[in-house]
Design goal:
The chain is mostly helical. Helix content is 55%, strand content 0%.
Length: 77
Amino acid sequence: METHSHGMTSLFDQLGLPSSEADIQRFIAEHHPLGAEMKLWDAPFWSESQAKFLRDQLKADADWAVVIDTLDTSLRQ
């Protein structure tokens, strides 16, 4: 089985969001802190398709899960 390592830029590209380092930092700054009780995919700033992608990838523990967890952590700090 082949696994892939995805970075934050790739994740933002996958989500259809601006993906430069400055764009990513701005997104995190604008949307944190995410409440501890809220699941990442339930945050109000995702589109339905973005939320589904995040939820599905995390629940499947897919290749994307590590970088999605990194984003989740960044939004809660």
